Fold Methyltransferase.
Amino acid sequence: MTRIIGGLAGGLRLHVPLRGTRPTSERVREALFGALDARSLCDGARVLDLYAGSGALGLEAASRGAETVVLVERDRAAAKVAERNAEAVAKAGAARALVEQVGVAQYLQRTGRRFDLVFLDPPYDLPDAELEAALAELAPALEHPATVVLERSRRSAPVALPGDLELERSRDYGDTTLLYLGTRGTLADASAPEPDAEAAPEAEAAP
């Protein structure tokens, strides 16, 4: 079961697409949002959730006080599920997320919005060159400072970052790695306490 963990919609059960996505485990999401909340990064944030699937990551941020949330998902069936989940979270009093049924590259090339918190949870089999291109397209849409959280397989090769972004830290959770990236020269304090990665069980990936 996938559910909203905390905030206004805490406990709300989310629908998930029947196929094509791998929901991020609840323990990984708890660790992720514990780290973000320790630095107050959700409150008032303008959030972008790329490769959104059910929208679980972006909607968790909405529940925890994000000002605006955009969910980008190319698959039509998954986008419809994300719309349904966004409506349910909004009924709990959180911001109403906007769902964009479009490819990541197409969205980033056309958007005029700017974001200070971004989630990327691409399919594990996404070619590295495509992911690196998405990060390069994302950079102009970032505020300064901004935090980008990239979820990858622990077995994935290191990803090349554009000049605008640098790696702040990474955390491993079973087969999942979370990479915390920041806009160059404006990284937030990384000293806030964070749940122990080694305590987390083997996890799936993608919301």
About this structure: The radius of gyration is 15 Å. The first helix runs from residue 26 to 38. Residues 78 and 150 are 20 Å apart (CA to CA). The longest strand covers residues 142-153.
